[in-house]
Amino acid sequence: MITNLIILTLVLVGGSLGYNFFPELMDFIPSVPAWIANPIVGLILGAAIFYLLSFQVIKPIERSIKKMESFFSQLSVAYLIFGSVGAIIGLILAILVSIPLAALNMIFVSNVLPLILAVFSAYFCFQIATSRREEIRRLFTSRAQKQEENGVLERKEGDSFRRYKVLDTSTIIDGRILDVTKAGFLEGTFVVSQHVLQELQYIADSSDSLKRVRGRRGLDILNALQKEEKIEVQMDDSPLPESDEVDMKLVHLAKKMDGVVVTNDYNLNKVAEFQKVPVLNINELANAVKPVVIPGETMRVMVVKNGTERSQGVAYLDDGTMVVVEEGQHYMNKSVTVVVTSALQTNAGRMIFAKMEHSQKGIDDWKETK
């Protein structure tokens, strides 16, 4: 469509130039028949020449148009509207100023200076309208709306705010995204790609009972998210690179929408960071809100399995945090009191190292007797 439009435009331009200037050019050539110097002949020749020329320039023109489309698609509607209105006001002001200048009948002042004023006036008014658009908008806001907004900080869209949250399959199956959103810690629009939905359906139809349960849980979480009144869920059917895996498709989608990838997958987290795509990791959020343990604190745990080192036992807190207990191997399947010695934060989670409380008491007693 754009190709035909470019060709038609060039043909019309060529025909117009030929119609207006071809007869005057023929006046410089002696003994030219009158039918050749006819404007209609010039129109036909100009249109034909520009039609042939269009095949040479159509590709660069198309590339330029696509770059312009890409540039303007990244701008917000409010920015374009306020900028256009500001430029129009600047041109009107330049016309009003150029009227008395034209009456002076001076070559530079009457002809060139109004053009310069028009360009600069349109530019400055465009800049003022786009940079102060929030203030201009508030001028036209009704008093009732101003009273409702009074005392509320106005948030501007920037690098720290991403409206669209692209959900990963692992996050949906995990289910904690529903609780986090209900608590109000996530905002914006949740985007579910058709590829994620297909993957969930494939898992739900699996012959493996464990995978089938996980897939059905993911579909239930999606339905619960969609039923929440304060949560907006949007399906995305846009075409994405077919050769990529689902994880890479989500990264491409987040780039396209200027959104954030929400995931529990450690590898997807690293790939998205490498692609300069913001990531929200539910596991990192869970680790961040876990209670902080201080060396010297005591806690009650149950040793459930052997550790990797000699005499070590492993226990788990209610939130899943691993506790490595020195000499805990001798208290298998028993609830014991331990003393925290240190804590280690890793990308996979938090690990707590502890030892038996009675061994700590023995050290303290030995220090006192010494």
Account of the protein in words:
This protein has 370 residues and is an alpha/beta fold. The chain has 3 domains: 127 residues, no CATH class; 124 residues, 5'-nuclease (Rossmann fold, 3-Layer(aba) Sandwich), CATH 3.40.50.1010; 72 residues, OB fold (Dihydrolipoamide Acetyltransferase, E2P) (Beta Barrel), CATH 2.40.50. The protein has 14 helices and 10 strands. The strands form 2 sheets. It has a 5-stranded parallel sheet. Strands 6-7-8-10-9 form a 5-stranded mixed barrel. A hairpin with a 5-residue loop joins β7 and β8.
Secondary structure: elements and pairs:
Layout: H1 2-26, H2 39-73, H3 77-102, H4 107-131, H5 133-139, H6 143-149, E1 164-167, H7 169-174, H8 176-182, E2 189-193, H9 194-204, H10 209-227, E3 232-236, H11 246-257, E4 260-263, H12 266-274, E5 279-281, H13 282-288, E6 298-306, E7 313-316, E8 322-326, E9 335-346, E10 349-356, H14 357-369
Parallel strand pairs: 1-2, 1-4, 2-3, 4-5, 8-10
Antiparallel strand pairs: 6-7, 6-9, 7-8, 9-10
Helix pairs in contact: 1-2, 3-4, 9-10
